[in-house]
Request: fold
Amino acid sequence: MKIYLDGKLVENEDAKISVFDHGFLYGDGIFEGIRAYNGRIFRLKEHLDRLLASAKAINLTIPMQQKDIEKAVIKTLLANKLSDAYIRLIITRGRGDLGLDPRNCTKPPTVVVIADNISMYSEELYENGMEVVTVSTRRIRQDSLSPNVKSLNYLNNILAKMEAVRSGVMEAIMLNSEGYVVECTGDNIFLIKNEILYTPSGAEGALVGITRDAIMELAKNKLKIQVKEGRLSTYDVYTADECFLTGTAAEVIPVIAADSRQIADGKPGKITLKLIKEFKNLTRLTGTPIK
Ligand SMILES: Cc1ncc(COP(=O)(O)O)c(C=O)c1O
Reply:
């Protein structure tokens, strides 16, 4: 595997960064998870726009133009001969002396692109749907760190994931400090009730996902169903007709039970399955060609 590191493609075993990198020392950095399908990179511009917004939010000056980052992603895919892949793009504050102050980072930001083939959940879970649990770890408050900064600080999500795994399932529903449903540890959550699609609004503290946007567009434009963003409770999850999660890594996965409450008949919902089919079409027919 070839890794893009600070302008060069290096072998996996040579892809090393300094222990003085503030991304390593403090999680001071940002990232994007991007997918390529069938030789096209899905919604690359949206991902790079979000990356640049995250950089601005933490006052990190990225040492490259957006088009150069795009080239770095394509170069990494071509070097690894991948037409279907999961891409991890990371930019840290860079190397510097110990101490939180970013001014300590005298070296330019570290830029890394990894391209690999990953599936977040087992085929069985995609086929039959997964169970989730609501966990005690609350989603970080927006007045502490905006959920839309896709930062290298994922300890909040990791602690929630650990709670889910301890309960024997693969994913956790995270609540905000007011006790309302926000999202899961690495994906957004959707409910369907009376053929209306619901999802927590960004104001509840969720990362406004790029897959989330694509699914809402498909629901409105292809399935012609109503879409509502707003405030959802665990009661809404338990009493929904259908539930599913979305994310670049997770793609779209049905949820059939939450907190040991079966959702409707305990099978992937019919609208969910239609959206999965539409999403598969969309990802295979649109995106930035890898050339
Ligand atoms: C916390 C969180 N929520 C939601 C998502 C889904 O966002 P996207 O669809 O843009 O990948 C992610 C993706 O990594 C995430 O980490």
Notes: The longest helix spans residues 270-285.
